[in-house]
Write a structure and sequence with these properties.
Elements lengths: L19 H15 L16 E6 L5 H12 L3 E6 L11 H9 L5 E6 L4 H8 L3 E7 L5 H15 L6 E5 L6 H12 L3 E5 L9 H4 L1 E3 L3 H5 L4 E4 L15 H8 L3 H4 L7 E3 L12 H4 L6 H19 L4
Parallel strand pairs: 1-2, 1-3, 3-4, 5-6, 5-8, 6-7, 8-9
The chain binds phosphoric acid mono(formamide)ester.
């Protein structure tokens, strides 16, 4: 594998920090690592002796487990800390917790936190590499990369594709990373959702805002539904989930406007029957579980490249 490009990053907190060449290198590396997960012995010695800490202050199924699986498949030693099992529960600040972790000399700290900017805060205070595994409503860069990998796997290229993202754009760190990644790689992204959930600022990231989801989905090559994040809604931004599902739910009637071969994506976790119809989740165009599979490969690539692999 040779691209001639050196991955000159120690941390990954935002996809805005990556160039097109960086994206291509991560995705090429992920494609080459994906095969390891299909072997009967799913382990290579690449990161033997390296220490990876998962510092997760918010619940996670896919991201935490796939970072752990990725590290273990590359023979790194992994350790998991959650908010309830750390001294944050006794009032220790995030920076103090992280400095104490650093004193044990890990090679990588992967953080998920409810505060936007938490990963950047650690990056400023730690010498150890930091990966943002989702910070508040800011970004989820590894999810953006696995989404890019999944679309490329099925469509060959991102250039010229039309991607529709439907749902709670304002609270979605996935949407923010996806918009940056997809548009930088030559796709156009249209977003739609209730007006209270679609800030016009997303246009500055390169997305087109459509008030009507039918405009966003028309002729789309990819339709992504986002979860309604009840845990981040301090005020009700929608009258009811039933009304949301009626106007913005991804269902067969909305999908008739997309291209017949449109991919259906969702970063998970899914509220079946709210943002997406269960038959669509389980239908032939859904690549939702491919996203999860590719999450392991992308995270293997990130651990490898950020810890100095060439
Ligand atoms: N997509 C995603 O971030 O899922 P988890 O919250 O389960 O990690």
């Amino acid at each position: 594998m040779e691209t001639g490009h050196f991955f000159n990053h120690k941390h990954l907190t935002s996809l805005a920090d990556l160039s097109v060449e960086d994206f291509e290198l991560v995705l090429l590396t992920a494609r080459s690592f994906k095969e390891i997960s299909s072997r009967s012995i799913k382990k290579v010695p690449t990161l033997r002796g390296r220490t990876v800490i998962n510092l997760f202050f918010e619940p996670s199924t896919r991201t935490r487990l796939s970072f752990e699986i990725a590290a273990k498949r590359m023979s790194a030693d992994t350790f998991n800390i959650s908010a309830s099992s750390s001294s944050a529960a006794k009032g220790e600040t995030l920076v103090d917790t992280a400095l104490n972790l650093q004193a044990m000399n890990p090679d990588m700290v992967i953080i998920r936190h409810s505060s936007s900017g938490a990963a950047n805060l650690l990056k400023r205070h730690l010498q150890t590499s930091v990966i943002n595994a989702g910070d508040g409503t800011h970004e989820h860069p590894s999810q953006g990369l696995l989404d890019m990998m999944t679309v490329i796997e099925h469509k060959g290229d991102l250039t010229g594709l039309k991607i529709a993202i439907i749902g709670d754009i304002a609270h979605s760190r996935v949407a923010h990373s996806d918009i940056i990644g997809f548009t930088r790689m030559g796709a156009t992204v249209s977003v739609s959702g209730p007006a209270t959930m679609v800030p016009l600022e997303v246009e500055s990231l390169g997305a087109k805002v459509c008030l009507d989801p039918r405009d966003a989905v028309a002729d789309a090559d990819v339709v992504m539904a986002l979860r309604i994040q009840r845990e981040r809604l301090l005020d009700p931004l929608i009258p009811s989930l039933r009304e949301y599902a009626a106007f913005f739910g991804v269902n067969e009637s909305l999908l008739r406007l997309a291209r017949p071969d449109a991919l259906i994506m969702h970063p998970g976790p899914i509220n079946r029957g709210v943002e997406i119809d269960p038959a669509i989740v389980d239908g032939p165009r859904s690549v939702i579980l491919d996203q999860v599979t590719n999450g392991v490969a992308v995270r293997m690539a990130l651990l490898y490249l950020l810890m100095g692999g060439e």
